């Protein structure tokens, strides 16, 4: 491969603290994450020690209050951290995003007592979270979920199965949406369930196209009992909490997608400047130069879009439409860019000797998770053209 190092991403960071934070993240990514990524993904190994290091370094609770162990960082900074981690290994970047998603309900809607009791361990105590909304028969139609929570005195008994759960079987806590009342979105309540709760188990991890190091599994709740002080928010508020969490989570997926795309572009440029045909580097040929220019432009546009949405969120303004746009554009960009990266590498791009094929396989899932891109288009259209006629 080429000795040429990738050009660093030009980031506009408002504070010296943010610049130091990104420098720390790049150091960890380059030293602890990237060197093992290909081997561990091929082996299907989850890097729990990396998440322990991230927790010890204060990187698992960045957008939450320092009062409870968070990093007090704006989303604009947090998302760029995710991008750096995902560029090194998507299993890590996406894992941090999912952990942040799982922590949202308690951080935003928990009581003061709940936050004092649980958040420090969740945000900086080495714990890892999972978010349980989807089920085998309710994916895009999440409001039709069937997992039930039935009150028994001062406890709730949870029964049902969740599906497609990142960190399923290895998480220390699960934020679970369960039906406590009527059908539809108003009958759903959120709960914080410990990972070692009696009656909680996980299925065999899914055999996936990519992200093999990140376990995705069904999680079964067989009469799992939790006390009422682990109910988050009011009864019936769970679906609203879930949707609010997903608005922020979609920005995390967008940032991860740009990280994967940037890694693919860097790999393609490195190869194209080293590979010689017809007496000169293939990067000299106009056809490839135009591909590289388009890839770089799409990445910059995606980065600007997710950062613009993050600034709205940081300012306390509505950002759901922009989050859907960012998730849609950035993940579609990742798919286009990684496909082109494989093409630039030619036959080598189709082999596991180079990371381009892994980036392509990983990019695909980002168009699916946390709301498929078809769902994102529906969300955007509702904001722009109004709700559908019934």
Overview of the molecule:
- 51% of the residues lie in helices and 14% in strands.
- The protein has 390 residues and is α+β, with helices and mostly antiparallel strands.
- β9 and β10 form a beta hairpin.
- α3 packs across α6 and α3 runs antiparallel to α7.
- The protein is globular, with a radius of gyration of 21 Å.
- The N and C termini lie far apart (57 Å).
- The mean pLDDT is 96.
Number of helices: 10
Tell how many strands the DSSP assignment holds. 10
Task: State the order of secondary-structure elements, H for helix, E for strand.
Answer: HHHHHEEEEEEEEHEEHHHH
Question: Termini, distance in Å?
Answer: 57 Å
**Unreliable residue runs:** none
Write the layout of secondary structure elements.
Blueprint: H1 16-43, H2 48-56, H3 75-88, H4 90-109, H5 112-124, E1 129-132, E2 148-152, E3 155-166, E4 173-179, E5 188-194, E6 200-202, E7 216-227, E8 231-232, H6 238-274, E9 276-277, E10 280-281, H7 286-314, H8 320-345, H9 356-366, H10 373-385
Parallel strand pairs: 1-4
Antiparallel strand pairs: 2-3, 3-7, 4-5, 5-8, 6-7, 9-10
Helix pairs in contact: 1-3, 3-4, 3-6, 3-7, 4-5, 4-6, 6-7, 6-8, 6-9, 7-8, 8-9, 8-10
Concise synopsis of the structure shown:
This protein has helices spanning 16-43, 48-56, 75-88, 90-109, 112-124, 238-274, 286-314, 320-345, 356-366, 373-385, and strands at 129-132, 148-152, 155-166, 173-179, 188-194, 200-202, 216-227, 231-232, 276-277, 280-281. The chain is α+β, with helices and mostly antiparallel strands and 390 residues long.
């Amino acid at each position: 491969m080429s000795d040429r190092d990738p050009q660093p991403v030009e980031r506009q960071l408002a504070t010296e603290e943010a610049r130091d934070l990104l420098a720390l993240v790049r150091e960890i990514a380059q030293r602890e994450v990237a060197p093992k990524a290909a081997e561990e993904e091929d082996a299907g190994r989850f890097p729990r020690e990396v998440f322990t290091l991230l927790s010890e370094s204060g990187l698992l609770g960045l957008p939450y209050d320092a009062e409870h162990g968070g990093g007090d960082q704006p989303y604009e900074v947090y998302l760029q951290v995710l991008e750096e981690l995902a560029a090194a290994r998507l299993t890590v970047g996406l894992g941090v995003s999912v952990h942040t998603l799982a922590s949202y309900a308690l951080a935003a809607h928990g009581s003061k007592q709940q936050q004092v009791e649980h958040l420090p361990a969740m945000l900086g105590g080495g714990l890892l979270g999972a978010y349980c909304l989807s089920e085998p028969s309710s994916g895009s139609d999440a409001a039709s979920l069937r997992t039930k929570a039935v009150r028994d005195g001062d406890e709730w008994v949870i029964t049902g199965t969740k599906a497609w759960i990142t960190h399923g079987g290895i998480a220390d806590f699960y934020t679970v949406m369960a039906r406590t009342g009527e059908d539809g979105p108003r009958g759903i309540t959120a709960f914080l369930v410990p990972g070692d709760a009696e009656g909680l188990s996980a299925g065999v991890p899914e055999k996936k196209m990519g992200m093999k190091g990140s376990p995705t599994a069904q999680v079964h709740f067989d009469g799992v009992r939790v006390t009422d002080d682990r109910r988050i928010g009011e009864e019936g508020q769970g679906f609203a909490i879930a949707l609010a969490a997903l608005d922020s989570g979609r920005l995390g997926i967008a940032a991860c997608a740009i990280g994967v795309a940037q890694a693919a572009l860097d790999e393609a440029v490195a190869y194209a400047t080293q590979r010689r045909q017809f007496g000169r580097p293939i990067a000299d040929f106009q056809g490839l130069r135009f591909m590289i220019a388009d890839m770089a432009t799409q990445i910059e546009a995606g980065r600007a879009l997710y950062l613009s949405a993050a600034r709205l969120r940081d300012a306390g303004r509505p950002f759901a439409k922009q989050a859907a746009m960012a998730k849609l554009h950035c993940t579609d960009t990742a798919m286009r860019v990684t496909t082109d990266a494989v093409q630039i590498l030619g036959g080598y791009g189709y082999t596991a000797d180079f990371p381009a094929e892994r980036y392509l396989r990983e990019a695909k899932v980002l168009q699916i998770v946390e709301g498929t891109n078809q769902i994102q288009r529906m969300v955007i259209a509702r904001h722009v053209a109004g709700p559908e006629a019934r």
